[in-house]
Each structure stands twice: as C-alpha cells, then as structure tokens.
UniProtKB/TrEMBL annotation:
The lineage of its organism: Eukaryota, Metazoa, Ecdysozoa, Arthropoda, Hexapoda. Residues 898-918 have a biased composition (Low complexity). InterPro entries: ANF_lig-bd_rcpt (IPR001828), Glu/Gly-bd (IPR019594), Iono_Glu_rcpt_met (IPR001508), Ionotropic_Glu_rcpt (IPR015683), Iontro_rcpt_C (IPR001320), Peripla_BP_I (IPR028082). The chain crosses the membrane at residues 561-582, 636-657, 829-850. This is Glutamate receptor ionotropic, kainate 2-like isoform X1. Belongs to the glutamate-gated ion channel (TC 1.A.10.1) family. Residues 442-505 form the Ionotropic glutamate receptor L-glutamate and glycine-binding domain. It is a multi-pass membrane protein. The keyword Signal applies. SMART domains: Lig_chan-Glu_bd, PBPe. Residues 432-801 form the Ionotropic glutamate receptor C-terminal domain. Residues 919-958 have a biased composition (Basic residues). Residues 1-21 form the signal peptide. PANTHER family: IONOTROPIC GLUTAMATE RECEPTOR.
C-alpha cells in the first residue's frame, strides 16, 4: 500500500512539472534592454526583481528576457548611442533608462526613430511639451512630472502651511525645477522670497546659514538637496540655531527619507521638519512584521524613488505588452537597426505605448509599488499621490492628491523599544515662547516692589495675566522681552520698529499689548482673534467742581432784588397803616356790647400790617382782612406782587441750584473742529493717527489736517505724554486715544473725562510672525477664555479696581442731573429756620425776664422770688389758668393736688345740673341774642350820628 501511494505521488509531480514546462514553452519570449550607470546596483536589483516576479506569474502569457548594458560614469552621448544601438541589434522590445545622469536625450531619439518603447524612471527636466510630442513619442516616464510636483509643493505651502514668506535653497537644476512654482505664490511679494544656490557657497557653507539667520531672520526654509548632502548641511545649520524651536523646514527631494536623517535625529532637531515622497501602496516599512525581509524587500520597502519607479516601469510595460500581444496582434520581433537605411519603426511599439497611457493600476499584476499610475498624452506621469511626513521620525502627516486636496493622516506607529529613543519627536517638546511687549498701563507694568522679584515675576498687568492663562491652557513656557512701543512704520525705508520689528525678525514669537489689528500690520505679521474691542474717543480736562453755596436759595434773585423786596415790604407796611387810618371802614367798635362806644379802634397797626405782608408773600394768608374798597384794592395788588415774585423765585431756584453741574466746553469731535482755542492730537504713528489719515470721512479729514497744522506739534510720542498734556493744558488740549486706555485714565484721575461718542471700531489681538503654526491654537484658547468670561474678569480687574474716589463720581461724566440737590445747597434754608428759632427763644426769654421784673416791683417782692414763682408756674404745663398775684400762684401750687381730686367729684354733680339747666339756657340765650342785636343796632345808629356830628364839628372848626 505504501508503495502504491508513493507511485501515485511521483506520477502527480511528473505531470505537474510537465504541465509547467508546456506552459513555459507556449509563452512568447520578449527581449527588453536596460541601461545602467556604474553604481546603480539598487536600481538594477529592482529591475531584476520585477522581471523575476512577472516571469513567475503562472498565467502571464509573456516571458521576458533581459539584456543589460552599463554606461561609464562620464556623460558621453556617443557611448550612449553605441550602447543603444547594441540593444536594438539584440531585437529588444523596450529600453529602460538611463537615469538622469545622462544629460542628453539620444536614447529617446533613437527609440523614437526605431518605434521601440522607451521607459524612463528618473526625472526629466525637459519641459518643452511640444518638442516631446514630436521627438519623444515612444518615451514614457513613470517618474512624477516636474510640473505636477511643483504644483503639489505650491498647494502644500499655500493651502496647508499657509506660508507667505520663506527662503528657497536648491542644489541641482532638477531641484530648482521642483520648487520653481513656489516663486509664483500670488499673495506673496517678491521681497518676501529669497532664493539661494548651494553651489555658490561651496567654499564655506556657514556663510549661507549666517546670512539666513542674521540678515534674513528666516524661520521658514524650503530646501532641495541630494539625500547624501542633507545631514551634513543640517548639522552646519544647527550651529546657527536654525534647527531650534519655531523654525520650519520643508525638504522637497523625494528621497529625503533615505538620507539617514531618521538615524541622525537627536535633541538638537527641535525645529518642525517635513518632507514629501511618492506614496507607496505597501504599508510603512517600519510597521512591517515580517519574520524575514530580503534585500529586495528592504530596498523596495524603503520607498527609495529610483528602484521603486524602475519596478513600476517594468510592471507597466509588461502588462501593456501582454495586453497588446495577446489581444489578437501577432508578435513580430523588432528588427530596428541604427545604421540600417530605409528601416521602418516597429509596428507594435506604438500600440504598446498607447496601451501604457490607457492602462489602470487595477488591471496590472503584480501591483505597482506606488499609488495612482496615470500617463498623459505626452508620456508623462501626471497623476500620483504624495505623502507628507516627518523624516526625523518617519511619521506620515497628510496626503496630497492630484486634485490639489490635502488629507490629514492619523496613524499610531508601533515602534520597537530598541529604537524608541531614536524616533523621539524633539520638535514636540515644551517650547519657550518669547513674548515681546512694552510698558503701558494697564497692560504691562512693573510692580511697586519690583526690586524684590526676579525675572518675569516683577511684571504685572492685563497682558501678563492673559499670557499666563494661555500658557496654562496650551502648556508652554514664556519669557517677556521689552521694546519701545508697538511699532511705527517708516514709509521711506519700509521698516517697522518696536513689537512689529521683533516679530518680523522672528526675535519673538508673540506680541502683546494695546496692539491694534490693522490692514497694514497684517501684511507683515499675523493676528489671532481679538481679545478686546474698542474705539476712539476724546480725552479732555475736567476742572474741579465749583464750591457749593450754603445760601444757594438766595441766588434766584440778585442782591438788588432782595433789597428792593425788603424795601417794598416796609413801604407797603407804612402805606397800609396810613390807608387804614384814613379809611373809616377800618375803624371798629372795640366792645360790641356797648352800642354807642366813646371811641373806635383801628386794628391795622404796624405789627399787624407787617404780619399781613409776610403771610401774603409766604402764601400762608392772615386772619386780618381789609373792609374798605381802597384797602382791598391795595391788598390785591400786594397779593399779585407776592404771587409773581414767588412764582419767579420757584422757577429760578431749580435752575440756580443745578447750575453748578459743570458741562464741558466741547461735547464732540465736531466741536473740536469748529473752534480754534483748544488744540488736539493723537499718538504719532499709531493706529489712531492712521485711522484719521486714511479715512475718507469729511470730518475726520478736517480733524487730521488741523492736527498737522498745529504748532508746536499736537502729536505725542506715547499715550502717557498725551495724558500729561491734557492735565497740564487744563482745557487747552484734547487727546484722541483708544477708549480702553482712555477709560483706564479717567477711572484713576478725577481731572480727566471722556468727551463725545466712540469713533469707529477697533480690535486688539496677539501678533505672531507670518505663518506661525501656533496662531490657531492661540485663537482657540482666546475664544475659550471669552466664553468662560475670563476676559471680562481680567478687564474688570485692571480697569475698575482702584482706590480713587472723585467728589462728583458719575457714571456718565457728561450727564447733568437736575433733580438731586445736596444738603450743602439747601443748608441755608435750615440755617434760616434754626436762626429764627433761636431769635424767637431769645426774645421769649427776654420778655419773660422783663415780666419778672415788673411783677417784683408791683408786688414788692425780690426778683429772685418772682423769677422762682413764674418759672415754677411755667413748668406746670397742665395748669391752664394763671392767677394775677404771686401769692395766689404759691397757694395754688400747694393745693393743686386737692383741687384736682375735688374737681373730679364735682364734675359728676355738675353734669346733672347742666342737664336741668340746658333747656332754660337755650331759652335765655335766645332772648339774650335778640336783646343784643337790638342794642347793637341802636349803638351803630348812635355811632353813625355821633360820627356825623364829629365830622360836622371838624368841618366847622376847619
């Protein structure tokens, strides 16, 4: 049985081998030629590997035979012509190579005449497409077209990196061709791009790096050099700190990953270094987990450009030839000869070239090593993918596609522990940002006890707190650098100073202070999103408020008016007395019970008349009223006079009492323009002066022209100088400044005020060098601070918290409050009241003492006894009746208690008596009233007759 199974196995193997031999014998043999320079062993190895893999394909209908020729290192077109003709004599169906070491196109011309496909796998700097269409019809290049590569670099720099200022460094003509489009970035000015050739600095390369660092202050460098030159060049640049943080390098050679930079990476490579390469189909070679990697696997896995492209060129030609030959066309070996006259091009050659231009990467086997293989009508590879990666750690970042899009790639690489130190990304280490600013309250100030601190701890202010919060959010360290001012632009030299100069020269990474975002500044630096909004307003002097008058209630009338009012009252008093004495209506019977009195009484004496005058003008009235027509007419006129005077006084009182609320002499920019006494100006060279100088508004242009015409100059060197000029000018100078700084100064100085509304709208932002990659992170952090209300808290801390209290502290300095009066302004009214009370008390005391003296004389007692008795009685306020004599007062004082008790018992008995007598009293009262009325009538008739008799007597005697 065992022998039987062994016999079956031998028969099966024999049949399998015989079948393979039959298949091989039925394949069509196609010869291909290749030209190699000395030292291109890797490219030759890739060529052999591609042929081997294709020939090992069981169902591949063609069998390829290779014929190689080697070119000496010297570039000789005659040698290339001879070797090409030798290949043609061997009936090759295609010629691969040579590489770009050959500067002549003799191989392409010979292949074009013979109709033999010519496969190129290296750069071709010939960009004359018309010449290529005529004389290179049989040439196909699998290397990325230089025009497309240059466009890809332009997309990366402009769209992804957003660089607008950089320096270009190249080594070869091919390198120059790859970066040529970078000089045509539309938004970049020519002076922002410098280009240097490494060949010009062969004697001492340090001259180049010194020029870039000290003269250009360059932070972005684009370099194209050979891979073997890269590491030595970067090590030299390292001596000039060109590999420090915040530096950016873009290496454009597609073989940068084979330069050894991955192994040379160390802590000195802190700059952001990126490069590109043709994106391969296979995974990153450093991710592979194969147990055994051959030399060819390592070569192709490393994605070295020439070997990889040679492999793809062989696969492209083999699949195109198979499609043509097996597609119904009989294979006839080419019979081209260089020296043969009248020979015709190979018929199948143009079909194979056409098939290579149409074939898809999905239809080939084995697959290509690079993504997207598209050949255009000129035989150039116009479509391919480029991989953007970090050569120091070999980490892919993004992929550029032929449509110009750039897609980010996020991959987690598993790197062995043995190489973990070598692949550390030192560019991601914690950075130290240099923050440039200048002394300006309240943004950046020295602490009062700054001598007790060291370093950045001696500073305080809004900008200090803002940078501190940003550093906590973004996890970076910082140090402050002081300069003079935000930065002024010199239109003659086109140069900046201050913060702007430091950022342009890349001596700092962040600029912070009261730095306004303007279009001119944005041409030279980038800004984050604003952290503060503001405008422009007028700073003006506010004088001390007038001293409030305690007798302000007298101000509605002038002194003369008050004197005339008092004099008028005295005159009217005397006039009333005189008119009352001559008017018989004002003489009355002093005792109505006497029908015919001996004499009449006139109540309009001086004191009563003065009381009427005072009551009338005080609108209180009086119980004394005139009876005769003349007196009534005179009283009515006085009442009219009192009404007018009181109404006028009331109307003027409010205006007079609020007239000490000071209003500024100017209230708007228009008021400044229309007057000539007050000068006004701005910070020289600042954003405010730029606003007025470039504005098309008529009033702003007028203001700018007036500011320029003032002598001496109305412009200042700093905001602090402008504030001092306003203080010292005391109303003769106004300063146009940003509202944030203005409000800060008005909060801390009672002699400063804001005039007019806000002019325009401006924003403060953090400034960074052009194209800084951390600008987006800063903007996002500022937005977070705004959303969490931190920016508002910072502003409140540095603007509102102060210890200055003004006498007239109002929310709006220009507001005039006419409704509120202070105690000082009404204090005189209280003083008059108190004075009147004191005078009345004094008069009462004097009257009391005078009465005590009279009682002592009349009753023949000592003044002491009289004073004691009168005072004791006055203090017993519950007694309502006063005896005429002091002895009665003493007796009554002893019997007061007993009388009070008896009065209570008597009150009950008296009530019963009163009820009985009430009816009788009513009747008696009625009779008495009738009798009184009759008597009064008789007395009035008698008095009239008596007065008539007296008048007759007076007239007769007269």
């Amino acid at each position: 049985m065992y022998r039987y199974w062994c016999l079956l196995l031998i028969v099966f193997n024999t049949l399998h081998i015989s079948c393979e031999l039959v298949v091989v014998e039925t394949r069509t043999t196609v010869k291909v030629g290749a030209l190699f320079f000395s030292g291109e062993d890797e490219t030759e190895l890739a060529f052999d590997e591609a042929i081997r893999q294709i020939n090992n394909q069981k169902l591949f209908e063609l069998q390829f035979e290779t014929i190689k020729r080697y070119v000496p290192n010297e570039d000789d077109s005659l040698v290339l012509q001879q070797l090409t003709c030798e290949l043609l004599a061997q009936d090759v169906a295609a010629i691969f190579g040579p590489s770009s070491r050959a500067t002549t196109d003799i191989v392409a011309l010979i292949a074009n005449n013979a109709g033999i496909p010519h496969l190129q796998y290296d750069w071709d700097i010939d960009i004359d497409l018309e010449q290529r269409r005529l004389n290179h019809q049989m040439s196909v290049s699998v290397a990325p077209a230089l025009q497309t590569v240059a466009r890809a670099y332009l997309d990366i720099i402009r769209k992804d990196y957003k660089w607008r200022k950089f320096t270009l460094i190249y080594e070869t003509e091919q390198g120059l061709a790859r970066i040529q489009d970078l000089m045509n970035v539309a938004e970049v000015k020519r002076e922002n791009i410098k280009i240097r050739n490494l060949a010009e600095y062969e004697e001492d390369m340090r001259v180049l790096w010194k020029e870039i660092e000290e003269d250009f202050h360059e932070q972005r460098l684009i370099m194209d050099c050979k891979p073997e030159s890269l590491v030595p060049l970067l090590n030299q640049a390292k001596e000039f700190k060109l590999l420090g943080p915040f530096r950016n390098w873009f290496l454009t050679h597609l073989d940068t990953h084979s330069s050894g930079l991955f192994q040379a990476n160390n802590a000195d490579f802190q700059s952001n270094i990126t490069s590109v390469r043709v994106k391969g189909v296979d995974a990153n070679p450093f991710e592979r987990k194969k147990t055994r990697i051959t030399e060819v696997d390592q070569l192709l896995g490393n994605q070295t450009m020439l070997p990889t492209l040679m492999y793809d060129a062989v696969v492209l030609f083999a699949n195109a030839a198979r499609n043509v030959i097996t597609g119904g066309r009989e294979f006839v070996e080419p019979a081209g000869r260089c020296e043969a006259e009248g020979s015709y091009p190979w018929v199948l050659g143009k079909y194979i070239v056409g098939e290579m231009k149409r074939i898809s990467e999905d239809d080939v086997e084995p697959p290509f090593k690079t993504e997207i293989m598209k050949i255009d009508e000129y035989g150039l590879r116009s479509e391919f993918n480029l991989e953007i990666y970090k050569p120091t750690i070999n980490e892919p970042l993004a992929t550029w596609s032929p449509d110009g899009s750039i897609q980010s790639v996020r991959r987690d690489f598993q790197i062995s522990s043995s190489s973990s130190a070598a692949v550390q990304d030192f560019a991601q280490s914690r950075r130290v940002y240099r923050v440039v600013t200048h002394i300006e309250e309240p943004y950046f100030m020295m602490k009062e006890d700054a001598e007790n601190f060291r370093g950045d701890e001696k500073y305080e202010g809004y900008a200090v707190d803002l940078i501190q919060k940003l550093s906590e959010m973004m996890e970076f360290e910082y140090e402050f650098v002081l300069v003079n001012g935000n930065g002024k632009f010199n239109p003659v030299t086109k140069e900046w100073d201050g913060i702007m100069r430091s950022l342009i020269d890349h001596r700092a990474q962040i600029g912070v202070c009261d730095l306004t975002i303007t279009q001119l500044r944005r041409k030279y630096v980038d800004f984050t999103v604003p952290f503060m909004q503001l405008g422009i307003s007028i700073l003006f002097y506010k004088p001390d408020p007038e001293v409030k008058d305690i007798f302000a209630f007298l101000q509605p009338f002038a002194k003369e008016v008050w004197m005339y009012v008092i004099l008028t009252q005295l005159v009217m008093t005397l006039a009333f007395v005189f008119m009352a004495r001559i008017s018989h209506h004002e003489w009355e019977n002093p005792n109505p019970l006497v029908e015919d009195p001996e004499e009449l009484e006139n109540k309009w004496r001086t004191r009563n008349t003065a009381w009427l005058m005072i009551g009338s003008i005080m609108q209180q009235g009086c119980d004394l009223l005139p009876r005769g027509a003349p007196m009534r007419m005179l009283t009515a006129m006085w009442w009219f006079f009192a009404l007018m005077m009181l109404s006028t006084y009331t109307a003027n009182l409010a205006a007079v009492l609020t007239s000490n609320k000071i209003k500024p002499s100017i209230e708007s920019l228009e008021d400044l323009i229309d007057q000539h006494e007050i000068k006004f100006g701005t910070l020289e060279g600042g954003s405010t002066s730029l606003f007025f100088s470039e504005s098309n508004e008529t009033n702003y242009q007028k203001a700018w022209n007036q500011m320029k015409s003032f002598e001496p100059s109305a412009f200042t060197k700093s905001n602090k100088e402008g504030v001092e000029r306003v203080r010292k000018g005391e109303g003769k100078y106004a300063f146009l400044m940003e509202t944030t700084s203005l409000s800060y100064n008005t909060e801390r100085d009672c002699h400063l005020q804001q005039i007019g509304d806000q002019i325009g709208e401006k924003h403060y932002g953090l400034a960074v060098p052009l194209g800084a990659d951390y600008r987006t992170n800063l903007s996002v952090s500022i937005l977070k601070l705004s959303e969490t209300n931190e920016l508002y808290k910072l502003k409140k801390k540095w603007w509102k918290n102060h210890n200055v209290t003004c006498e007239d502290d109002e929310t709006d300095p220009q507001a005039v409050d006419g409704d509120e009066l202070s105690l000082i302004e009404l204090g005189g009214v209280f003083l008059v009241l108190v004075g009147g009370i004191v005078v009345a008390i004094i008069i009462g005391i004097l009257e009391f003492l005078w009465n005590v003296q009279k009682v002592a004389v009349r009753e023949k007692v000592t003044p002491g006894e009289a004073f004691k008795a009168e005072l004791i009685f006055a203090l017993k306020f519950w007694i309502t009746k006063k005896p005429n004599r002091i002895s009665s007062i003493r007796t009554n004082s002893d019997d007061t208690t007993s009388r009070a008790s008896r009065s209570t018992s008597r009150r009950s008995s008296s009530q019963s008596k009163q009820s009985k007598q009430s009816k009788q009293s009513k009747h008696s009262k009625h009779s008495k009233v009738s009798k009184r009325s009759k008597r009064s009538k008789r007395s009035r008739s008698r008095s009239r007759s008596h007065s008539k008799s007296r008048s007759k007597k007076y007239s007769t005697s007269g």
